[in-house]
Every structure is written in structure tokens, then in C-alpha cells.
Description:
single chain, 19 strands, 13 helices, 396 residues, alpha/beta, eleven-stranded mixed beta sheet, six-stranded mixed beta sheet, globular
Amino acid sequence: MSANFYDNPSTKFPVIGVTGTNGKTTIASLLYQLFMQAGYKVGLLSTVKILIDKTEYKATHTTPDSITINCYLNLMLAQGVEYCFMEVSSHGIHQKRTEGLTFTGGIFTNLSHDHLDYHETFATYRNVKKAFFDGLPKSAFALTNIDDKNGNYMLQNTKAKKYTYALKTFADYKIRILEKQLSGTLLNVGGTEVWTKLIGVFNIYNLTAIIATAELLGLKKLEILTIVSQLESVSGRFQHIISDEGVTAIVDYAHTPDALKNVLETINDIRTNNENVITVVGCGGDRDKTKRPKMAHIAAQLSNQAIFTSDNPRTENPQTILDEMENGVSSQNYRKTLTILDRKQAIKTACKLSKTGDIILIAGKGHENYQEIKGVRTHFNDLEEVSYCFNQLKKK
């Protein structure tokens, strides 16, 4: 990749950074969608993909290295991009990959258990996130989720203009949920009712941040809400299909305890309780081991059936990971669990166990189209696998 380097391409058009444990991809990607539909040329740097207007590039990291970031920003500049939305990971902040960039705004989503294999303590992890806001210039805005206990902490030393969003407490930007369904959510946004295809309280937090950011960047409220009602969910984020037998399968990237809890609570909030929730979940290898028992406990506690399986074991022994997950299951929930090492077989078993009306959650990998075992990546896609299982069951 070659580019004509400027002193600082991030000063040539607004660059908005999104940080936090969960929600970064959804917020950045849907802001890209929103501004594209509003008629702008837009750039996106995300976990799922990199986009320069409508041209797509493969993403390898949530936040690329600084040279790669500047290369893409220069390409955006050359293509006439007017706004760029990017995920800013804790690794990216700590390793100074975003050093020297001039952000027009920063968004804080939430903070929960993740990456403690790298940061070692939660306080260190939190302070790395805070450093991003500490570095914002006076000309920028800092938008934070005030319902999160770390929301105010992020704003303590920032020079940027401070704004808050919330669903529960008083904030500059607030949304009320009126109705929840598996097909979407009815909202009250400042007195205006809006239907969105997004599902779950966690996604409405994301949407509140999106609406607030669009307003802060100068879009009109009516235009924002009109486009919001048309936005599609991001690949691998609460993505669902329904079989001919009436079984719903949901594929979600939830790979932290908090994200898994949010997704399962959303499902339990929407369901009628006449159906079973079957959760297929694993934990990645060579990553934070302390979240393994926690995720297994959540899956067993909030599901009628939990199936523990491989995620991306990478260089670790897959069975060791599953043993560590099983340690978190309480005795009263143990009867609700199965352990199936092979992820394909785990998904197949979930489909065979399901009956009309049941909900299958396949968590942890979301948009990923590979599985990494013993350092080797092979093609694997959760949505493809469950779709294939549904088709096979239909033939019988």
C-alpha cells in the first residue's frame, strides 16, 4: 500500500474514536452506515472490516498499527472522505498506535472484564481507556455512557467538551424503550417514537451513542431518526435466522462475561418462557483465563441448556479450556450443561435438541469466518453451520 503522506491526515476531516469493552464495532459500523445514507463519503476502521467509501479492505486488528492507520487515513483523504469512524482498543492505546492522531470526538461505551491477560488488573485496563480521553484536544467532544460506573471517570481530566448519554439516569442524550420484540425495538427519542431493527438494551445504548454523535457532528434530528429506523445490525452481532420449524438461532460475538450476560438477558427479556434457550459457547485460547469459569456460569445460569465447546483454542489444549470453564458451573446448574469439544458437533447437537419456538444462541465468534486450532486457521462460520443444520433437519 502506498500513500502520499501529509503531516497529519486526521486533521483534514473529522475522525471519531470509539472505545470501551463492548459495542465499539456496532457504534463505529452503524455511524458509517448512517453517514453514508445521509449522503457523505465515509471511512471505517473496525474489527470486522476497513472501508474507504464503498471500497473494502481486510481488517486484521481492532486498531491497526500507526503506520497502517495513517496509510488508510491518507487513502481516505485522497478519496474525498468526509468523516472517519474508528474503533480504539485498549491494546491500541497502550501501544500508542493512535499516538499523534487528532480526534474530533471520542465515545466511551462501557467497561467490564476483558483483556486482563494483557493489562493484569482492571484498574490498569480502565486507566488505559481513560488515557484516550485525557489526550483529546479542547476542540473535540468526549461522549460517555453515564449509566456505566466508569463513565464519569473517563471525563475527569479531559480537555474536550463533555457530553453524556444514558437510558436510566439524567444525561444530555437519553432514550426510553417502549416495546421490545425479536424483530426490533420501539423507542422514544426526545418525544419522537422511532422503530429500530436493533434488539436488546445493550444495542439501545449503542444507538443512543450513535444518535448523540450524529447530532454533535451537525446532522439534523429528523434526518438522523429517519435513517436510524433503516439501519441493519452488524454482521455477527445479534444476527438471527429462523428455521422452517420455527427455531430461532442467534449468532453473536459475545466473548466477555458482560457481553454474554447482556445477550442472554435480552433473549430472556423477549421470550415467552414457553420455549427453551440453548447456548453454545466457548472461550479463546492464549487469552484471559479468568473469564472462562465466569462465562460458563453465566451460560448455565441463564439458559435451559448450555453446551460448552471450542472457540479459537489457538496454541492451548482445547480440553483444558473446557475444563476451566466447567469449574465455574454451580452444582445446581451442572445438569443443564454438555461439553462437546468439536464446535460443529456442538452446533449440530443444539439444533437436534431444539423444538419449535426454541432459541439457540451461538456465542463468542460472531462475524469470524475461521477457527484457529494449534496455530492453524481453517474456515468456520457459525451462521453457515447453523444454517446448514437447519437445512439438514428440514430434509428429514
